[in-house]
Amino acid sequence: MIRRHLFRLPLAACLAAASLAAHAQDWPNKKPISLVVPFAAGGSTDATARLLADKLGKEIGQQVIVDNRAGAGSNLGAAFAAKATPDGYTILFATSTIATNVTLYKNMGFDLRKDLVPVSQFALIPNVLTVNNDLLVKSLQEFVDYVRQKKGPVNYGSAGSGSASHLSGALLNSMAKGDMVHVAYKGGAPANTDLIGGQIQAVFSPMVEVLPFIDSGKLRALAVTTKGRSTRLPNVPAVSEVLPGFEVALWNGVLAPSATPAPVIEKLAAAIQKVAQDPDVRKALTDQGSTPVGNSPAQFKDILTREIDKWGTLVKLSGASVD
């Protein structure tokens, strides 16, 4: 009896693999694709995901539906996607938060390295160091000197403990050998509200979220956190111009359940690469300060591996914890 069951197990596995292979040939004709967005509707990540969903659907000839599943620092939606049937009809729109969470959370509800496979990175987004207009610094160098020499209090706000804005500030504070104090908020919006009001002195924010305040003159932009300058704010230096080696880039991209057939991954990646080169998409992304990417699964995998290590180092440096 035991021998019969042992025989059935590999047979069942073979049948399941054959079924997925058959579905791969038909993909994406069977049904609409669900693009899981692990953040609430209405935010900047959701808007970018909807831009991708619309153009991707037209590229592959199948509807792509955004499925917002926010919670647990994006882990809720990511875990849902990781455990979905690996047939290419449920995919994840992830951000750099997913790499941070590997170190930040003791239990994400899934194993990023084992349960999800990178498909294609979609865009890079710089953080921007902004300060209150009353702060007596006009440049990045002056800000670094101000922090180093402790000329006055510098309380920097963030979207929460372990967020990219928190980790960006922790890295700058460490490299500048300063004494900035972190103030965690429940999201970037209240942090920027208090920055404008003068309750705090600085915030690192995703460019897409803070551009309206910069353009209107409500906040002063001192630097971007990416390796080089942004074409959207060409007169704003990169932090690395004053603190060599500083680099923090946010990103978003698509991942799929790890057992998704390779032909589906390849088709999906090729389609996303075309979307990233679409003139309308490129304009929409660059207008908000993002840089279109559209790379291969192998390239995205290499990047994700490095990102897990880098963000892990920053989490430990900051002392951030959510568990």
Automatic annotation (TrEMBL):
> What CDD domains has UniProt attached to this entry?
PBP2_Bug27 (cd13578)
Name the SUPFAM superfamilies on file.
Answer: Periplasmic binding protein-like II
- Residues of the signal sequence? 1-24
Q: Which organism is it from?
A: Variovorax boronicumulans
Q: Which family does it belong to?
A: Belongs to the UPF0065 (bug) family.
Q: Which residues cross the membrane?
A: none
**Domain of life (superkingdom):** Bacteria
Alphabetized, the UniProt keywords read: Signal
Instruction: Provide the protein name.
Output: ABC transporter substrate-binding protein
Which residues are in coiled coils? none
One Pfam family of this protein, by short name? TctC
